[in-house]
Amino acid sequence: MSEVKVGMVSLGCPKNQVDAELMLGFLADAGYQLVEDAAMADVAIVNTCGFIESAKAEAIEEILELAGLKKEGRIKTLIVTGCLAERYRDTVLEEIPEVDAVVGIGANHQIAEVVERSLRDNGFGLYGEKEDLQLCGRRIQTTLPYYSYLKIADGCNNKCAFCAIPLIRGKFRSRPMEELVEEAKTLAGRGVKELTVVAQDTTEYGSDLYGKRKLPELLGKLCEVEGIEWIRVLYCYPEKITDELLDVIANQPKMCKYIDMPIQHVSTHILRAMRRPGDRASLTATIRHIREKIPGVTLRTTLMTAFPGETQEDFEELIDFVREIKFEKLGCFIWSPEEDTPAFDLPDRVDEETAAQREESIIDEQSRITDAWCESMVGKQVDVIVEGYDRLAECCYGRSQGEAPEIDGKIFFDTDGKKLTMGEFARVEITDFMGCDLVGHTV
Asked: Which CATH number do you get for residue 183?
């Protein structure tokens, strides 16, 4: 058994987190000691995100912080993995010489060998083909014990003009249905009660393996796994949301009545520049249809403002759509110029001040919508999965089907002295709200 301690910091999305858990599994199988705090390890690994500029900045800041600890002699080696490593490869070594090794996603399964080599060598990279990224294997769960992510595919074929994911991750690759069901059973055996299904585009699942999209069938099989109580789906593309999928979500008791559907924009002019289908009318019709098929559904979306060529008229159409649709959950970010993407060289960029104002306007508008939605929840009862106890507030907190883990708000609730354990379900009546968080008591 190795006495070398390895710690990992994983940044970015849940899909990247699953990659991190698989790498931790490879390291554990090789006999390395895993520690939660990378600053207390002999070998520190930063599993990076590289989607947009702010994510890259966060990754670099984390790398530099650990590089400082290496200079002080507190850690021995520093390894960079993930999307930033895959995208920039040897540039990371050139720009940050304190980094001992850079690992592309196609070499994730060799992380144990990289750690061993990094202790005697430095300044090397190991990459491989993107398609060599291993999507299954032993995972060391880094989420709370009762929920986990299930990554059903990697890569993306959509080729949106603003997005670097196809460059970083390659073509869309689904995992076999049987393999996913077995993984879900393994997670349930560990005590996982809530599964969040993720991929770059979950609605595309199965098209490459089976010749047709099979997300509804997969969800149906996952609902049969004993021990799993809730299943939610993230990253659904609106044009691929079918009645078959909506029927599964509406009729399967284990399916959370929650759909994450990133639409980015509604202006036809901007959507075409983004290389995305649809328009305001088709998106409005899709959303109305979803709400008719699944009463009480929680809809989350992500918007992008200040894409090159976005006029004030385009922006006004976007914010008017936000007012009209009243998404229960909504995030907004400013377009980031990503090299090697089709949008990078587009003319008519929106200036930074205007971009910031537009983002703030959408966030402010959504804040008013969120307040109204929270107020409408007062007096209703919801099932909540208990996440913990807040000692300052002297109450429990958790989430309902309407809150995705690590993304949405919380529900804080009083239990009238009854002790509840993490992962237990409680029936809660909503009595108030604070910001985007709901407040209530058990019934």
From this structure: 3.80.30.20
Model confidence over 138-158: pLDDT tens digits? 999 999 999 999 999 999 999
What CATH number does the domain containing 438 carry? 2.40.50.140
Instruction: Please name every residue paired with 208 in a beta bridge, in sequence order, or none if there are none.
Output: none
Q: Residue type at 358?
A: R
Angle between helices 280-293 and 243-251 (to 10 degrees): 30
Distance of alpha carbon 35 from the chain centroid:
23
Handedness of CA 403, 408, 413, 417 (dihedral sign): positive
**CA–CA distance, 433 with 430 (Å, rounded to integer):** 8
Q: Are residues 163 and 236 in the same domain?
A: yes
pLDDT tier for residue 1 given thresholds of 50, 70 and 90: very low
Quick: pLDDT tens for 75-119.
999 999 999 999 998 899 999 999 999 999 999 999 999 999 999
The whole model's pTM is what? 0.95
Do the bridges between strand 411-414 and strand 395-399 make them parallel or antiparallel, or are there none, so unpaired? antiparallel
Q: Which residues contact 34 (CB under 8 A, 6 or more apart)?
A: 5, 6, 7, 8, 24, 27, 28, 140
Contact (CB, 8 A) for 219 and 255: yes
- Average pLDDT of the residues in 236-262: 97
**Which amino acid belongs to residue 115?**
V
Domain with 349 in it: 147-376
Q: What is the layout of strands, in order, in the sheet containing 43-48?
A: 33-35, 5-10, 43-48, 77-82, 101-103, 124-126
Q: What share of the chain is helix, strand, coil (3-state, %, to 5)?
A: 40, 25, 35
Which of 307, 311, 326 lies closest to 365 in space, CA to CA? 326
